[in-house]
Design goal:
212 residues; alpha+beta; 4-stranded mixed sheet; 25% strand; globular; MdcG_C; transferase; Holo-ACP_synthase
Length: 212
Amino acid sequence: MYSRHDQAWLSGAGWAAVLDGAPPAHAAALEQWRRHDWPLIVTRRTPDAAPGAVCLGLAPPPEAGRKLRIALQVDEQSVARVENALTLRAAAAAAPARWAAPLAALLADAGSITLRAYGSLALQAVTRLTYLTESSDIDLLFTPASLHQLDAGMSLLQSHQQNLPLDGEIVFPDGAAVAWKEWRDAAGARVLVKDAGSVRLATTASLRELLA
């Protein structure tokens, strides 16, 4: 089972297949990832994905403000291993100095709540390439195991959003993900849900029932 934002490492044969079919414009970035054995990122399954295929993405650092996004489909047999998104604690080492103290405070207050990072901060931590800019957000994943933890996690994020540019998603037990800021502002209404294969609307009540 693959979840959005998971890290996926390809086998040698997997990389060979990807590079063999790569457009020339993508070849240099793909070869760089292969050479360093950096992970690709699991993305939402597209409607045209073949049975047994895994949808992955690669995002090189932005150049002159332009962001390249490379979408890939590989056979499951091409994936050597999969890991969850990087923990925020691990990713924090790559953060700029201006975030150091506020991130330390956020992690100290998190207690048993595990926050994971994706997006620019996580990519910079994994590759040591330059992704973060003055306007970058900190994209976080928060996976509550109970209603109490959901409410505690929301309180945590809201209490630190004044000191850090926090963004990201709440991930419910069935893989349904909701932007935490949208959840904060929903007021009992429906919210946009992203999961492994679709984008849909759901009520906040139905999602809270998953944790009951």
